[in-house]
């Protein structure tokens, strides 16, 4: 079954936008108040099996993963009326700087916190979205779109074999691979696919490295340890080798906590609409006119002021939009950063891309939309931010 998130023609404030929708999902395994949470990889062994899926055959699943979602052609004039309102006082959670560095960035304005989340869809194929590290008590939290974590096409609660790789580029993971442990989202998205709640926060285990370098395709760089035949036989066949009657398996190295390696963005909620934000993500795919403007290989950014938006077909009554040429494929989960400092490469997460739109009918995507981050968003974040994950090395 195809699990690519479909984008339908949806009205934003009375006009059309490409939004994100899917079939009704199963009820969450656990829920408390407005927050639902589900296990992605509940043990170190389960997490190692996830790693094996992405590393086998010279990381072919990573290299050949495709962006999740596609956009349909839409045509409309941009109109914006009404809009979201704060449900409590404005608030922020401070950002945190990264302590370690593994390689330099071509553009110093780009945040180290950004990367791609990879997962296996219901079609059995590997896909990816954009995401970012966000500050938490244990330095282990990732924020992305809800539909990049929860499977809105099938009745399975969450995506399979979910990992976050900051700074990912063509098979390289400079700061390691972080396996998702537990996914948190708003109850209304988990159960009703409410477009106003299309965001998720995921706790991740400490990062894993398989060798000296960050190129996951280079088996020669992997570290190996000798084991007995029984251990070798029970190990994933793609991560083992035998030579001269001796048996070896890949020796994983603990890369440490996500936040310690790349830093983490803060969080802002109940902010005034009309604020300026940077959007960071990995757009891919074509504009409706067929122009292929982005490859999805490198991190891109756009900048603009937020405005009120609506998408009633996905129950999106309190969305915000920003002018952006990011095409839909790959840009899902892109981080919207308020008060972003280029010098520190840190700001406050104030949205995640949930859809894109051609609002003037010229067959070129010109707008991205996000749920409005309010007090309930903070509640979901808070439920996720205090949970420890630990090491799987």
From TrEMBL:
**What high-level taxonomic lineage is stated for the organism?**
Bacteria, Bacillati, Actinomycetota, Actinomycetes, Streptosporangiales
- Origin species, per record, is Microbispora rosea
Domain of life the protein comes from: Bacteria
Give start-end of the signal peptide. 1-31
Write the protein's name: V8-like Glu-specific endopeptidase
Q: Where is this region: Disordered?
A: 79-100
Gene3D superfamilies in the record, alphabetically?
A: Trypsin-like serine proteases (2.40.10.10)
Entry keyword set: Signal
